[in-house]
Amino acid sequence: MELVSQHVKGIMEECKIRARDAGLRFDDETLEYIVTNRDLIELSPKMMIPTLYDYWVHDVRVLSGKGMYEAYPSNPFETVINTRPAISYYNDNNPDWLNVMIFYHVLAHIDFFQNNMFYKNTWDIDLAGQALADKRLIARLRSEKGRWVDYVIEFARGMDNLAGFHRDLSRTLLQTGARKLTRTDFYFDVFLQKIISVPQHEYVKEISRYNECQKDNVDFFSQVTGKYPEFNELYRKETKKKSPFQMDIMEYILRYSPFLRKEENEWMTSVIHIVRSTSLYFQPQIRTKIMNEGWASFWHEKLFMADDRISGHETDYAKVNASVTAMPKVGLNPYALGMRLFEHIREMEDKGRYSFAYFLLRDAVLKEKYDQHKNTGQSFIFKVREDMDDFTFINHFLEQEFVDRHRLFVAGKRINNQNMTWQYYIKSKKADDYKQMVINTLYHPPDIRIDAEKTKDGILYLDHRFENKPLKSDFIENTMIGIEFLWGGPVHLETSEPKSATRLDPRYTNFWDPSAQGSLPEPPALPIEWKRVRYIIKDRKLHKQEL
Amino acid sequence: MITLDELLERDKKREEDGFKRKIRIGRIVKPGSGNKEKIIVVPTTVEEKFVHDDIVAEQEQGEAEPTGGTGEGQEGDVIGEQPVRPEEGEGEGEGEGEGPGEGKGGEHEIEANAYELGKVLSQDFELPNLKDKGKKKVLARYVYDLTDKNQGVGQVLDKKATLKKIVETNMSLGNIPDVSNIDTTGFIVSPRDLIYRILSREKEYESQALVFFLRDYSGSMGGKVTQTVVSQHVMLYSWLMYQYEKQVETRFVLHDTEAREVSDFQKYYSYKVAGGTKVYTAFKLVNDIVEKENLARDYNIYVFHGTDGDDWDKDGKQTLAEIEKMLTYAARIGITIVEHTYVGSKQTEVEKYIQSSGLLTSHHHLIKLDVMAENVDDSRIIQGIKTLIS
């Protein structure tokens, strides 16, 4: 691993100037390294952070990565890590024109990391340094506690996908927004409505009295405190109340586990903290894959084409670019989809189509011609890259115009009994179906929370808020064994499963060979009925109860 | 960097601590035509968490998960087809009748990696009932033993030989003037006097063996069941490669409602699920091959069959007939049934008819049956191999 040469660094610095001129915003300092493919294989299980804590699962991944490389050698163009200063890796020495393209791509990634709101909690951390400190701590613990450190890491990682990423994020965003509950807010929103619950006409009367007071510059609250002497005290209490955010499972265990509170187990809390914060650190990247890659591809194309340093290499570029950003005939390419969607959004906004007037238009010809020449598309997409993640991006902007324009469709795959072939067919060209298909591929951990009321008598009670997707049943046992270990008592998990009667196992039917004896006509597909079940882990034994 | 052995060693400790083992031996099979496939042994593990199951609940039967696409066409248009049963490519024919031992190129890699896996599997196995048959080719089996001696370094100190050497040295130094009255306190011991035993590879010659791998790839075999069967057969195959240095010949048969022979392990390993199930077709194909090519005369024949136990031939009349015929020449038939979890405590069809046929007792040294659940771990699979070749 070594820094890029001065010549290559010079290309990077020029790219930065041009990218800034185009509106991208990022820190001055960046570090670029040349790494070998072997380095990359060893780094990738650690999410490319060389200083991340050691863990045997990483070693397993490295070994299988090496095997994979042996069978299918391939190398990524670049990898960027979100730290300060931003670090990027390149495989060996590319020609200058290719470096120009890759650097623009990387700079757009850095711009995304440093401006997208979902990364807010990662902005103030020097990740490489933090990770190093964590790594040393874990190494020290391992020398004292041996493999039990690895069990704690394993069990903590067993629930790190349930860490309250959104809760942590909104906590930060609300704090920086510094919106405090004012006395007026409290009086009207909480006190009148919830505490003394006045009838509506009195509420309205109070509002008009408030407006009167504002106009005449009279102290509105003097009368309030006269009437309700307890008001000031209640207000003080309310502002002192802890934020109403619910703790996630890891936080809850860290705070309340009787097992971790024992002195000899205290070291485990630091391990769990490390695992939790590492998971939270990587979550924004997982949740903005389409946007991040789309944004980088969008800008490398735009900036590269305008760069005079590359003239003569347009066809070379076109070839590389196409391999990255082509829409596959069947399949999904996040680079390609994100890039086209950003282009689409800019154009729609340029024409002023994100408006009520356009929305109300029903005439296809008028819609086609609709153009307000607003030309605000550029600043609009900058706003989008700041405020959205993959879900909101896709859910909000993926519309029928986009699907039609790029001739997108949902591709189905079904078996054809006559020819014994898999048949690919156009299942739907509706934007809603396409959107749902994309959304189904997004990262979405189950919503499992602590049920505070049922958590008693030493039992930790987890409640899975069911979203018509059952949990992967093979994983439940080991995950719960881990939680039981860290909690130090029985753990219950309430979740939903299909009622077996409604689900005919497709493996039993003989539709493979319709001529076979006893083959039944396909039963009509019944909607699946769900039942609530409770998994109980006690002394590392799993039981299941129907509720 | 940590090695595979160290990882497995550490994984073993989990059991002492009361947790399940987590590392499985995975394989990456690189497709190659003919016999040039490459198996790379890698460890794999899954980090278990609460996650949503991939199964899309409202999926219709025979329909796979949808994805994206681009291009012209109307809803409902078919844009392409792909055969469910893969066709044999141009590589076919060249592998015919020629054991994998004959392969060129790429061979070295499969050996090197199969060696790794063979080591993992421990060396306790050997092919049962090997008989001296025709001398077409001699099969060499390798065993490892502490037979060779080495001066200076090695695994086990050979005390007697070392003492002799020390005496010899001191004699030539003149430290032993009187052989009837030796004073050992004046001895000088040179480092080169230490004689060690070292591990060395010894060839043992045995007769020729031919192994048939049979696999059910019918529609019911989806998912874990196939993985488990294939895992077991990969291990068996790798072990054969390791222990018999590719001198065991192997043939591969896949079946659903009809059986077909494929030319190499890679195809055998990678072909996916297709139609219904008629188990007898596979056994019949093997019988036909053996008869046509007159293999029973020259070879010890081993047949390993993996299935989920589902068979349209419910009472197994045809299958049992073929098996009985096979028992007249086979040195061992090993049948593995990997049960789907939904089977519960019921017996599968294949298990039922094989058990009730009485073959397992009347020919107990020739036919073995192993039944396991679909979600077993590697140690159980290895246990299964031991049963099959015991």
In short, what is this structure?
The complex is a heterodimer of chains A (547) and B (390). Chain A is built from 24 helices and 11 strands. Chain A is α+β, with helices and mostly antiparallel strands and 547 residues long.
The CATH class of the domain at 105-138 and 207-389 in chain B, by name, is Alpha Beta
Biggest interface: A-B, 91 and 74 residues
Shape of chain B: elongated
Largest sheet of chain A: 5 strands, mixed
The unreliable regions of chain A are 501-522
Order of helices and strands of chain B: HEEEEHEEHEEHEEHHEHEHHEH
State the end-to-end CA separation of chain A: 57 Å
**Individual helix count of chain A:** 24
Number of strands of chain A: 11
**For the CA atoms, what is the radius of gyration of chain B?**
27 Å
> Gyration radius of chain A, to the nearest Å?
29 Å
Strand order of the largest sheet of chain A: 7-8-9-10-11
Helix % of chain A is 40-55%
The pLDDT mean of chain A sits at 85
Total helices of chain B: the number is 10
- Please indicate the percent range of residues of chain B in DSSP E strands (runs of 2 or more): 25-35%
Q: Please state the overall shape of chain A, judged from the principal axes of the Cα atoms.
A: globular
Helix content of chain B: 25-40%
**Mind telling me which CATH architecture of the domain at 105-138 and 207-389 in chain B this is?**
3-Layer(aba) Sandwich
CATH level-four homologous superfamily name of the domain at 105-138 and 207-389 in chain B: von Willebrand factor, type A domain
**Mean pLDDT rating of chain B:** 74
